[in-house]
Design a protein that fits this description.
The complex is a heterodimer of chains A (288) and B (122).
Chain A lengths: L1 E5 L7 H11 L3 E5 L7 H5 L2 E15 L9 H5 L5 E4 L2 E4 L9 H5 L5 E16 L2 E8 L7 H8 L2 H5 L3 E5 L6 H7 L4 E6 L3 H16 L4 E8 L6 H9 L3 E6 L2 H8 L4 H4 L1 H25 L1
Parallel strand pairs in A: 1-8, 1-9, 2-7, 2-8, 9-10, 10-11
Antiparallel strand pairs in A: 3-6, 4-5, 6-7
Chain B lengths: L1 E6 L17 E6 L5 E5 L9 H11 L4 E4 L4 H9 L3 E4 L5 H9 L20
The chains are: A alpha/beta (288), B alpha/beta (122).
Chain lengths: 288, 122
């Protein structure tokens, strides 16, 4: 079972939820797709970490072969190539690595080189296999790093349940992260802003036809919760509630995996995991 | 001298557009003949690299200088490679800027920004 954890904004508790679900799931895998600022490893503290570079293909020109025909510059929809004074200029950070220019060049004046844009770190934390994607500062898109992470999914499935910690928001990187998920957990805050952002990711998972449910975080008993109201009005399944709890907040801010620290939190996340498993089984049965 | 200015409308009373790559039009102005023409900026709707494409078009049309309030570093790289000088406009009044340029009052645009890539069209 592959569970993606996402939210419309940062700081709602994606990492809290995905790290702790992985920690109570027995043999499991945690995959940090928030490649611009991966932080799950700060909690899980994986050991025996192996690092692999992530590269993309970037065109290189052999000036002596280029006849300034402009086929490549006219083809590139991202305008990563320009031709000035018969000389080709290549803007590496704009290139989306489609390979089209190299393919089309009639003179074979273009070829591709590897450019390192980040890395994947893999290690273990107890029974949890931990993968983190890390994009280098200044790079344009984290998508290739996420793709490299997700290529490990078939192998990770053998470990047990896989928890995918997504980037915040609802952009390309999030779409990439949820693509292979069986179920999406949306984490939401009890504020109007939180509900607004929840609505954005909710729309996204609907577009992708992903079975989903919501975890309400930082819940204040007896207080208004716009995210809960949103779920009720849209008929979205509420998977569980994490109370606004200063002690939990302190443990978490100290880099602790709360479910490994205290029985009450272990019970909380075990209950949440059971609820999610039940939903996934139900969806699988309904879909079959 | 043929110069180009990003402008908001196709007339001489218009204002300088703050965006180089995504300006709707370029005024191409000949300082000797005072002849003015307006080019649609085909880069304005680009998914990315608008500055590069706009700069390419100006290089192709053989302008010798560009007046603009600011510019991304990629667009600037193209113009530099094409030997096109870039001057920083003062305020958004088009005619005042043309006059200031002809009187040698405009300074070279030395600072470029790193662009807004990925914010809107990844």
């Amino acid at each position: 079972m592959r569970i993606a954890v996402l939210s419309g904004k940062g700081g709602t508790g994606k990492t809290l939820v995905s790290v702790n679900l992985a920690a109570v799931a027995g043999k499991a895998a945690y995959v940090d797709c928030d490649v611009e600022e991966p932080n799950g490893h700060l909690f899980l503290k994986p050991e025996q970490v192996e690092t692999r570079e992530v590269t993309v293909k970037i065109p290189v020109v052999e000036d002596s072969l280029c006849t300034a025909c402009r086929i490549c510059t006219e083809f590139c929809r991202f305008n990563a190539l320009a031709l000035v004074r018969e000389k080709l200029l290549i803007f590496e950070e704009i290139c989306h690595s489609c390979g089209g220019c190299t393919l089309l060049c009639p003179q074979k004046a273009l070829w591709e080189k590897d450019k390192v844009i980040g890395k994947v770190e893999a290690g273990s934390s107890g029974e949890v296999r931990v993968l983190s994607g890390i994009m280098n500062t200044g790079e344009e898109s984290g998508v290739p790093v996420i793709k490299a992470l997700l290529r490990a999914l078939p192998e990770l499935d053998r470990e047990g349940d896989v928890f995918i910690d997504c980037p915040p928001g609802s952009a390309c990187t999030v779409m990439e992260s949820i693509q292979d998920a069986d179920f999406c957990v949306l984490v939401a805050e009890p504020t109007r802003f939180g509900a607004q952002n929840l609505s954005m990711v909710h729309e996204l998972v609907e577009v992708f036809h992903k079975p989903h449910g919501v975890v309400l975080n930082k819940v204040l008993e007896g207080e208004e919760d716009p995210s809960e109201e949103y779920c009720k009005s849209k008929g979205v399944k509420i998977l569980g509630r994490i109370p606004f709890d200063r002690h939990l907040g302190n443990l978490n801010a100290g880099g602790r995996v709360v479910s490994r620290e205290e029985e009450a939190y272990r019970t909380l996340f075990e209950g949440l995991l059971q609820g999610i498993r039940k939903e996934v089984r139900h969806e699988a049965a309904a879909g079959a | 001298m043929r110069i180009a200015v990003p402008v908001n409308e196709k007339n001489m009373e218009t204002t300088v557009c703050p965006s180089f790559g995504r300006t709707p039009f370029f005024l191409v102005y000949d300082t000797q003949t005072q002849e003015a023409s307006y080019e649609d900026n085909s880069a304005a709707s680009s998914q990315g690299g608008a500055g590069i494409k706009a700069a390419q078009a100006l290089a192709d049309s053989k302008v010798e200088a560009v007046l603009a309030p600011r510019m991304g570093e990629n667009a600037s790289d193209v113009l530099v490679a094409a030997g096109i000088a870039v001057y920083k406009t003062q305020g958004d009044n088009l005619q005042e800027n043309l006059k200031a340029f002809e009187e040698g009052q405009l300074k070279a645009l030395e600072e470029t920004h790193s662009g807004f890539h990925g914010h809107g069209g990844q």
